Structure formats: structure tokens, C-alpha cells
Amino acid sequence: MNRFLELYAQRKAAATTQFKGRGARRVRCQTCQMPQQHCFCEQAILQDSDCGFVLLMHNMEVLRPSNTGRFIADLIPDTYAFIWQRTEPCEDLLALCQQQQWQPYVVFPAAFSQPERVHYKVELKAGQKPLFIMLDGSWREARKMFHQSPWLDTFPVISINPEQASSYGLRSRPIKGQWATAEVAAQLLAMSGEESNGKQLAQRFSQFTQQTLAGRNC
Fold first, then answer.
1. pLDDT computed for residue 68 by the predictor
2. pTM of the model
């Protein structure tokens, strides 16, 4: 069950207007959102993983073809997807975090977090698995989600320290420390001892970026 695709279908059905962003006129695969001639759905093979991911998505991010968080759900079975709302907490997400098998972490740069919340490595009790909560949206939207979600304040923040700018060039100019959701997830998988899964996700992200940029230049 791909929970991102379920959320995407619900959001699309509820939309009152069509998405008008860049690339909206392209004929796309309805599953991977790539231009039809570059569909790579056959490569979306679920892997064994002890990690869980939550895509806490800005309302508009769900419909953006440039979204990369969806690639996590292609590979990692325990990937959940919810729409963020400013006025109320996500009760389904909070219920998920209460399950004893999970150790939730909010994924966000240390520079924008309270120092006492920040962790740089995964620390688990016996029988627990990491549940990485990804704030999925543009950088501006993600910062808003982080600072306007007090119901997430009880969870530790986990941060990675990228040494270079993101290779993601589909939106704005990459800035050091601001990576695409799939790039961050690949690093978190490697940090959790799942190097092979991290490499597969990074490769999927790289292929998506290269093919999308190539299509823009056609």
C-alpha cells in the first residue's frame, strides 16, 4: 500500500482547480508523475527496512510534480503521508508516534532548532525503530510548518550536516544545508545503517532530476 498515492488521489479529487505550476501541461504518468516517456514505475520496488518515514506535507506540495518525498514511499514500506494544517494538530500522526515500536524524530536543520532538541545520530531503545517526520514542502513552507506546529515540540529533532549544496535544481537555486526531501531521507537511511536503501533512494532521486531537467531543455 503506497500511502502517498492514496493521499495524492484524495487531494486531487478534492481540488477545485487544476495544478498550474511549471510543467503542468506535460503528459505525465499518474503514478510517478514523470513525463510519460520517462516513466520509471517499474523501478519502484519495496525494500526491507527497519526505518519509518512520515511525509507531513504542505497542502500544495502533494500535487507538485517536483515533489521528491513520494520516492521514499516507492522504496520504504513504512512510509506514511499526512497533510499539515496550521490550525490543528495531525491526530493520526500523533497516534502513530505513540506506538511503542517507534522513536519519532522531526527532521530539520539544527541551525533553526532549539539546541537542546537536536540529535546528530539515531538513538533507540530496545525494540524501537526510527520514525523520521519529514516536513515536505518548499523551504519557506517547511520553516513555517516547523515553527507553527507546537504539537511537534515534544519530539527530538534530528539533523544532518551536508557539506555541499543540494543537487536538486528543479525549483530555486540550491543553498548549502537545504536539501530535497529524498536527499535527506537517503542520508537518514545511511545514518541508520541501511546504506543500500540510501543508495537506491539517492539513485532514484538523481534519475528523476536528470530526466526532468533534460525534458525542460527539449
1. 93
2. 0.89
